[in-house]
Amino acid sequence: MASYKIKSGDTVSQIAKRMGVRVQDIVSANPNLKDVNKIRVGQSLKIPAAKIGKNKGSQGPYGRVSQTEMNMMRGKGDEYTRGIRAKMKAGAETTPTPKKAKDTKDAKSGRSAMLAKAKAKRDAMPLPKSKPTKEIAKKKLVRDRAAALAKKTADKKAANKKIALPKSKPNKPVDKKATMKARMARLDAANKRNRRG
Q1: What count of other Cβ atoms lies within 10 Å of the Cβ of residue 163?
Q2: In sequence order, what DSSP letters do the residues of 141-154 get, joined into one string?
Q3: Quick check: 51 and 7 in contact, CB under 8 A?
Q4: Exposed, middle or buried by CB within 10 Å (0-12, 13-18, 19+), for 129?
Q5: Contact (CB, 8 A) for 39 and 12
Q6: What structural domains and CATH numbers belong to the chain?
Q7: Distance of CA 194 to CAs 19, 48, 186, Å?
Q8: What is the DSSP letter of 45?
Q9: What is the pLDDT of residues 125-139, one digit of tens each?
């Protein structure tokens, strides 16, 4: 544990930030510190070792400090100091962080163990029996018939497309004058026959 001599303008939070520890770590390490806001120049403070590993980034000088504690620190520092000491005495620092709280709760409830046991039991169960061969053969026959029918229908459609209709002869253009002359000639011939008779 390191020792730090307070200089002019120092505050506990500044020291905590500089040393990489929390304010509450400094308070708990210095039982002679009565008020977190009242420190004297030349006073020595014990500084605990900085946190390392997973918890390093989540610490900061105000790590795990509630809003109520922040308000107490801003106002009456002695109340904050007493509160921190009571918190440490009660073992608040031994409680898991929010990330570990779920794992701790799970371990206490035994849910993971129960799920693992159920999974092992499920994996040990035999696979379901395959369907009888006759039923498989029957289904295959139905599928084959449906495929054959579909092929036959497709072949019929293709054959109908291939059948060519007979080509019609192109119509010759009709000459109306010639048609009228021929009709008049026929009428004249009929009239002559009638006169003779």
Answers
A1: 6
A2: HHHHHHHHHHHHHH
A3: no
A4: exposed
A5: yes
A6: 2-97 (3.10.350.10)
A7: 143, 147, 13
A8: E
A9: 777 766 667 777 788
Q: Are strands 2-5 and 44-47 parallel, antiparallel or unpaired?
A: antiparallel
Q: How many residues does the chain have?
A: 197
One-letter amino acid at 135 equals: E
User: Whole-angstrom Cα distance, residue 62 to residue 44?
Assistant: 21
Q: Would you state the structure tokens that stand for residue 11, as one six-digit string?
A: 């505050």
Distance CA 121, CA 182 (A): 106
Rounded Cα gap, residues 105 and 100, in angstroms: 9
What is the end-to-end Cα distance of the chain in Å, rounded? 156
Cβ-contact 27, 33 below 8 angstroms: yes
Question: What values do phi and psi take at 51, rounded to 5?
Answer: -70, 145
User: pLDDT by residue (tens digit) across 88-127?
Assistant: 766 655 444 555 667 777 777 777 888 888 888 888 877 7
